[in-house]
């Protein structure tokens, strides 16, 4: 199992490759706000653990295992954003909140949150009722 830090790297590398077609050490460092030397170190570890293949002058590509994990991590991040948005969390909190919790939930919890998203999404009266409750509770504070 990848550590939280490894997950952050795999997730960002997956996104960079998806969006730009490649992931350079400097791009990874920028998107994670870390020093390039930390990226090089982690990339070497991820290579050793078979998530990616790193060649100093050719760049880096995800293995099948790395792609599979990356895809799941991006799905998890997006689902949690969608969930927080649906339950009414303010936009300005969503990204940081997801970054804070995503590594600490079991896949069981992720799947159950997926159920709730579907539950709220498939019948708009449910969301409407949730909004009413929130307005009532906000009135109390
Ligand atoms: Mn994330």
From TrEMBL:
SUPFAM superfamilies: Iron-dependent repressor protein, dimerization domain (SSF47979), Winged helix' DNA-binding domain (SSF46785)
Subcellular location: Cytoplasm
GO MF annotation terms: DNA binding; DNA-binding transcription factor activity; manganese ion binding; protein dimerization activity
Subunit structure: Homodimer.
Keyword Transcription: yes
Protease found in the keyword field: no
PROSITE patterns according to UniProt: HTH_DTXR
Family membership noted in the UniProt record: Belongs to the DtxR/MntR family.
A Pfam family annotated for this UniProt entry: Fe_dep_repr_C
GO CC terms, sorted: cytoplasm
Predominant localisation class: cytoplasm
Binding site for Mn(2+) 2: 11, 77, 99, 102
Keywords assigned by UniProt, alphabetized: Activator, Cytoplasm, DNA-binding, Manganese, Metal-binding, Repressor, Transcription, Transcription regulation
Function statement: Central regulator of manganese homeostasis.
Sites where the protein binds Mn(2+) 1: 8, 99, 102-103
Protein name: HTH-type transcriptional regulator MntR
A GO biological process held by the record: intracellular manganese ion homeostasis
Regulation of its activity: DNA binding is strongly activated by Mn(2+).
Ranges for domain HTH dtxR-type: 1-63
